[in-house]
Amino acid sequence: xxxxxxxxxxxxxxxxxxxxxxxxxxxxxxxxxxxxxxxxxxxxxxxxxxxxxxxxxxxxxxxxxxxxxxxxxxxxxxxxxxxxxxxxxxxxxxxxxxxxxxxxxxxxxxxxxxxxxxxxxxxxxxxxxxxxxxxxxxxxxxxx
Length: 144
Description:
Helix content: 40-55%
Number of domains: 1
Largest sheet: 5 strands, parallel
CATH topology: Rossmann fold
CATH architecture: 3-Layer(aba) Sandwich
Shape: globular
Number of strands: 5
Radius of gyration: 15 Å
CATH class: Alpha Beta
Order of helices and strands: HEHEHEHEHEHH
């Protein structure tokens, strides 16, 4: 039992749980992404609109190891968050993974500023590989 627990905690040691923010307005997609992220043993905060994310980061001062943002939403979505991060928390952009069904015309201006762009529909394994790579990047690279 202890050995199994150590295997689960080993990737997190000595820093504790990694924190992942998910901005997605579709509840089915929220559930899918959270289910996929469970295998990484991360703490997940789910938001349905960008204003709440901006408030959580800017006002409450919360920091995340990865931010999965639905780029296009009917109201204040990923673009709202990206603009706020660019203005107030530039270093956080290197922790952003955009999840989008939008074409390259929307993603291209951001692709060099964010960690990655994952196009919907995506394979669960592709999203997980991208999130793992983002979580493993050194803080110095994300802050650069």
